[in-house]
Amino acid sequence: IEIRKLMDTDVYEKARRVYSDARAEVISIMKESRMGRVPKADRAIRLMQEMSEIFIRERSALLGLTMIKDYDEYTFNHCVNVGILSLALGGALKLKPNAQVAVGLAGFLHDIGKTVTPRDIISKPGILTEEEWEVMKLHPVEGWRIVRLMEGVSEFTATSVYQHHCKFNLQGYPALKEGEKPNPGAHIIAIADCYDSMTTLRPYQKRFDPKEALEIMARRAGTDFDPAILNVFVRMLGLYPIGSLVRLDTNEIALVTRLNPEDPNLPAVKILYDPDGNRIPKPVEVSLTEKDPVSDRLRRMIASSVDSLTQGLIEVEGFFK
Predict the structure, then answer these.
(1) Which segments within the chain are labelled E, that is strand?
(2) How, if at all, do strands 279-287 and 302-305 pair?
(3) What are phi and psi of 245, to 5 degrees?
(4) Exposed, middle or buried, 201 (CB in 10 Å: 0-12/13-18/19+)?
(5) N or C: which end of the chain has fewer CB within 10 A?
(6) Full-prediction pTM beyond 0.90?
(7) What is the pLDDT of residues 7-28, one digit of tens each?
(8) pLDDT (tens digit per residue) in 122-165
(9) How many CA atoms are closer than 13 Å to the CA of 1, on its beta-carbon side?
C-alpha cells in the first residue's frame, strides 16, 4: 500500500509538471501564430506522448487537472484541457497509440485559428452579432490552414481541427462537401470541447456540474454529437466525474477528486462541509470504499448531486491546483 501511495504521488507530480509545460507551450504556439509564423509542433507532440504514458499509470491524475479553469487565461487552459480529454477519449475508444496522440494534438490545437480572429470578437462577453458570428465561424478553417503547415502534424490532426464544429448531423460549420462526413477525431474534439466549456464559469455562462453537463450533452446525442462516442466518454468519466460536487449519506458535502475504475459509485472525494453545514478548514480526501471496522459497512456513500445554489458557493478549481 505504501509503495502504491508513493507511485500515486509521483504520477500526480509528473501530471502537474506536464500540464504546466503544456500550458506554456500553448501560449508559445499561439504567440508564434499571431506573429504570422508557422509554429513548431515537436514539443507539443512530445507532451501528448508524455500524457499518454501518464494515462496508462493513473487516469485521474490528468483528468483532475482539467478542472483547472483560469478565467483570465481561459483560452490556454481550455486548449490543454481539450487536448487531455481528447487523448483520454481516444484511449477509451482503443485507438492505436499514434492515433491517440494525433487526436490529442488536434484537441490541443483546435482553437489555434482564433489567433487570426479579431480580439474584440474573441473577448466579447455578450452575444455576438450576426456579422461577428460569421467571422468567428472561420476559426476552424484558419486553424486548418495553420496546422497543416506545421511539420510533423498528420493530415488526420489537421482535418480534425477543420471539422470539429461540423456536428454529427452536419448542421454545424464549415459546410462539408456532399457525401463527406467528419472524421472520428472531429467527433472526439467536439465532445471534449463542449464538456470543458460547460464545466467552466465564464462571464456569460454559468458553470455546470460535470454530471449535469454530461446529462445535457446526452440530450444532444445524434444531433451535435456522435452517440456511440459520447457513450464511451460518459463511461470514461464515470457516474460522478472528477469535479462533481456531491452530498453524502452522512449529509457531508464533498468534491469528487479521483475515479475508481473498480466501482464508479465509490470514487475518492474531499470532504468540504461537515454534516451540520460547516465549512471544513482543511478538506480531507477519503475513499468511499472505506468501511467501518466494527460493522464492516461503508462509512459513506453518495446520496445525490449537490443543488445548483450550493455549487455556486464553492470554487472547485482551487482544489486541483
Answers:
(1) 245-248, 253-258, 268-273, 279-287, 302-305
(2) unpaired
(3) -100, 130
(4) middle
(5) N
(6) yes
(7) 466 899 999 999 999 999 999 9
(8) 888 788 999 999 999 999 999 999 999 999 999 999 999 999 99
(9) 0
